[in-house]
Amino acid sequence: MAANLPVPQKKTYLGTNLKAAGVTINYEPWMIDEITKCMDDPIYFVKTYVKIITLDYGLQPFLLYPFQEDLIKLFHENRFVCAKTGRQNGKCCSENTIVKIRNKTSGEIVELTMGELYAWQKFRQSVKINASTF
């Protein structure tokens, strides 16, 4: 009869520096202060902790343009924000983000993910469907 031995707990997620699910952390007071500072000032968080990987220089700090700082401040200070911006202005949207579109003729509202909306738009362009319906 085998003994019930505890299973060793995995400390990191897929060998990265991210903690695995269920791993507890004993926070020091300075760590709590840092988390609070990051929550209160997302610009500080980005400048201090967000990194990107470039082909030329490898791991680099994420340098914000002034308009990106303005948008982050706007998003942080306001619950609802509608921003009309260019496609490649340093913001991102997950493929699983839910969007709602309204049929201009019937008023029907359709809920799609960004991935589904993108695929639907590509299909519409390929068959030349009238774009003024939605």
Report what the structure shows.
The protein is an alpha+beta fold. It folds into two domains: 78 residues, no CATH class; 42 residues, no CATH class. The chain has four helices and four strands; from the N terminus they run ααββαββα. The chain has a two-stranded antiparallel sheet with strand order 1-2. A two-stranded antiparallel ribbon has the order 3-4. The longest helix is centred in the last third of the chain and has 14 residues. The protein is extended.
Q: What assembly state would you assign to the polypeptide chains in this entry?
A: single chain
Figure out the total of helices.
4
Order of helices and strands: HHEEHEEH
Residues in β-strands, percent:
5-15%
Strand order of the largest sheet: 1-2
Helix fraction? 25-40%
Q: How many beta-strand segments?
A: 4
Task: Report the biggest beta sheet as strand number plus sense, adding barrel if it closes.
Answer: 2 strands, antiparallel
Structural class of the secondary structure composition?
A: alpha+beta
Query: How many discrete domains?
Result: 2
Mean pLDDT: 79
First-residue to last-residue Cα separation: 66 Å
| Low-confidence region ranges | none
Radius of gyration: 22 Å
Coarse shape: extended
